[in-house]
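Could you help me review a protein record that somebody else here produced? Here is the record exactly as it was handed to me:
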Amino acid sequence: MPETPDPQLSADFSTDLDRAASLIAELPDYPAPGIVFRDITPLLADGPALRATVDALIAPFLGSFDVVAGLEARGFLLASAAAYSTGAGLMPIRKAGKLPRPAVSVEYDLEYGSATVEAHDDLPKGSRVLLLDDVLATGGTLVAGRDLLRQLGYAVAGVAVLFEIEGLGGREFVNDPGLHTVFHS
C-alpha cells in the first residue's frame, strides 16, 4: 500500500481483510477428537483476500528481513506469497524426512502429539529471516522454527501467524513481544 493510502484503497483493504477472516473454515474433531482445525484453503482461493492477508501478515516487518521462512505445510503458502511480494528469498522448514540434506532438526510437542522440523543451511550466517506460519495454537511449531533458525546462525527478524487460537497458551509459550498475528479466535 502507498505511504499515504488512498481512502478507497484503505476501504478495499479493510473489506478484503474482513472477508479473509470470514473465509477461514472451522472443522471440529480434525485431525483428532477435540481439535478444531482452521482450514485456510477458502481464503487462499480468494485473490483479494489472500493479498490483504499477506500484506497484513508482513506489514510490521517490512524492510527488516531478507528471507521468509514458512513452516510446513500451510506456512509455505503464506511465506511464498510474502517472499514474492517483497522480493525476498524463501526458506522452507519441513517435517522430518522430507529434505535430502537437513542441517538442523528440532523436535517439539503439538496439542495432539509430537513432531520434528528440519531445514537446510543454504543462507549466509546472520541472514535476517521472517518466520511465518498459519496458526498459533500451543506455540510448539513456532518455537521449534525459531530455535532451528537460531541454530543455523540466522537472525530472526520477526515471527508472524495468520490466525491465533487464544486460550491455548501459545503466545505465552512463544514468549516474543513482537509476535504478530492477523486474526484471533
